[in-house]
Amino acid sequence: MIPTGIPIKELFRSFSSHLGKDIRVNGWVRTRRDSKAGISFVELNDGSCLKNLQVIISHDNPSLVEMLPIITTGAGISAFGTLKKSPAKGQPIELEAKEITIYGTADPVSYPLQKKRHSFEFLRQIAHLRPRTNTIGAVTRVRNRLSYTIHRFFQERGFYYIHTPIITTSDCEGAGEVFRVVAEHMEEEFFGRPTYLTVSGQLQAEIFALALGKVYTFGPTFRAENSNTRRHLAEFWMIEPEVAFADIEDNLKLAEEMLRQIVQDVLDNCDEDLQFFARFIDPNLIGRLEMIIKKPFEVITYTEAVKILEESGEQFDYPARWGCDLQAEHERYLTEKKFKRPVAVIDYPRTLKPFYMKVNDDEQTVAAMDVLVPEVGEIVGGSEREYRYDVLVEQMKQKNMNLEDYQWYLDLRRFGSVPHAGFGLGFERLVQFVTGVQNIREAIPFPRTPGHALF
Predict the structure, then answer these.
(1) Cβ partners under 8 Å of residue 224, min gap 6
(2) Is the pLDDT of residue 324 over 70?
(3) Distance of alpha carbon 243 from alpha carbon 154, whole angstroms
(4) Which one, of 284, 266, 302, 272, lies nearest residue 374 by Cα?
């Protein structure tokens, strides 16, 4: 059995209880430096935190000296020794090694992650090694904390976690940007009808919301959109709550509460990683996150947003006009220049939005909402759902949809229909916002984009 090591994060957090004791740590060598004073200094990192633990190897120990040539950057080792206070500036502790076990060597010439800064473009080419870097390691720890906090948020409020299908027969958004599922070496449909990778779990979540009251999904979704931008992925994760007996105001309130709790939790529990991002990625990060907590969201209608954009005097690449979708440049102007806070835009033109959104009394707009945040733009999109059978049928006909394919969805309006609402939160865009990374490819462990799918 391989001996269990103490996480380096725990050592730095409560080192006083371990001082003077013999302990074991496991990890990967970041650097090794040999001094003329007969000591070698090994920087060891196990991924639990940004900090490296310095391991001291005395040249008076022949068995350890024999190992030095293969204790190189990238090697996977286990070190056993005494934890002591460090005389060096900037580090409270160090480990005086008594024994070292080398499990995996790394050739110092061919190992790609040398002691220097690498571009994100280069790291994407070695995605199997990039988690060992400071930035991707920090993103991963924050991403993990966000996942935990999201589940806790909904569970504490009585929501039920629903696993909606990845393979589906419906195109929720109706945009046609779906991946078709085809079984290799089969001429006929495997499931007896055309199937696709899901764009959203919303429609299926509605089924359970109209039985259990409050549900949420948290899973992978797919979109065959041929966009190679810093904001788009072909595979991404979505959080989609759905609430019965709720309207657009309830929906917006839930989204705002969720974002506030998520950001507060990350500020409370990921300080070291956030300070790293603020230093090397985005100097305005902490202030922007605190703004989410301190400032109420600005709420404006789509019509008001277009008027603001038209009168802004800004030279947009895509001029704003009523009836056109808001572009990223419009979203960033509203959040970063006009209001300097998150902005919720509601009541979009009926023609812009999918069939399932509730038609407002003016019959020109729908009860939709998009929550926009600085730097990222749209992070939440949702609506009150159209629960009136006749109006829903009319909507579907206007979108040229085959009603037979969605008979089950119409049945939900025939049998005990009630007002309900929900939204989708793009998880990678949330990770982008919280970490400040500029490209969404750094916000997910294995990015899938047009022309690129490693592993």
Answers:
(1) 177, 178, 179, 234
(2) yes
(3) 11
(4) 284
Q: What are phi and psi of 145, to 5 degrees?
A: -65, -40
Question: Residues of 27-45 as b/e, b for ≥16 C-beta within 10 angstroms?
Answer: bbbbebeeeeeeebebbbb
Domains of the chain: 8-113 (2.40.50.140), 130-443 (3.30.930.10)
Place of tokens 């790291």: 123
Cα separation, 433 vs 449, whole angstroms: 20
**CA 14 vs CA 45, 55, 378: distances in Å:** 17, 18, 40
List pLDDT tens digits, range 238-274: 999 999 999 999 999 999 999 999 999 999 999 999 9
Q: Please write down the HEC assignment for all residues of 213-258.
A: CEEEEEEEEECCCCCCCCCCCCEEEEEEEEEECCCHHHHHHHHHHH
> What is the pLDDT, as a whole number, of residue 173?
66
Q: Is the dihedral of CA 275, 278, 283, 285 positive or negative?
A: negative
Cα(399)–Cα(368) distance, integer angstroms: 17
Among candidate residues 262, 234, 278, the one with its CA nearest the CA of residue 379 = 262
- Full-prediction pTM beyond 0.90? yes
Written as one letter, the residue type at 121 is E
Q: What is the largest CA-CA distance in the chain?
A: 86
pLDDT band with cut points at 50, 70 and 90 for residue 116:
confident
Distance from C-alpha of 18 to C-alpha of 82, rounded to nearest angstrom: 9
- Say which residues have a Cβ less than 8 Å from residue 296's Cβ, sequence separation at least 6: 256, 341
Q: Coil, helix or strand for 327?
A: coil
